[in-house]
């Protein structure tokens, strides 16, 4: 199993059903040394506001989120779901868990 850290829309059970056709189980965790930045993405019905993780110059900044157990097939579905404004990289969370995260491309 892979670990996926989500700080945004993928925490929503409705979005999880849309992307994975199931609800994921997860645990709360934190990403240190990163912050959230506003991002506008053009969607079918116009512009939508989202957030994206970016490295911070302040190592005490924290992004709160959830870590989910996912399969490689699930990660492929998220790759399709996320816009090209995001890239998937591995990070080490506060708990020591190594997880995939989608951050600014």
Automatic annotation (TrEMBL):
Keyword field: Transferase
Signal peptide segment: none
Superkingdom field: Bacteria
Pfam assignment, any one: GGACT
Domain Gamma-glutamylcyclotransferase AIG2-like: 4-103
Molecular-function GO terms, alphabetical: transferase activity
Protein name: Gamma-glutamylcyclotransferase
């Amino acid at each position: 199993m892979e670990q996926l850290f989500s700080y945004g829309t993928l925490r929503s059970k409705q979005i999880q059903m849309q992307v994975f056709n199931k609800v994921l189980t997860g645990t709360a965790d934190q990403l240190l040394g990163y912050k959230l930045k506003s991002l506008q993405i053009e969607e079918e019905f116009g512009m939508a506001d989202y957030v994206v993780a970016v490295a911070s110059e302040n190592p005490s900044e924290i992004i709160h989120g959830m870590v989910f157990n996912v399969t490689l097939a699930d990660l492929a579905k998220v790759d399709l779901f996320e816009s090209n404004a995001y890239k998937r990289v591995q990070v080490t969370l506060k708990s020591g868990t190594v997880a995939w995260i989608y951050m600014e491309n």
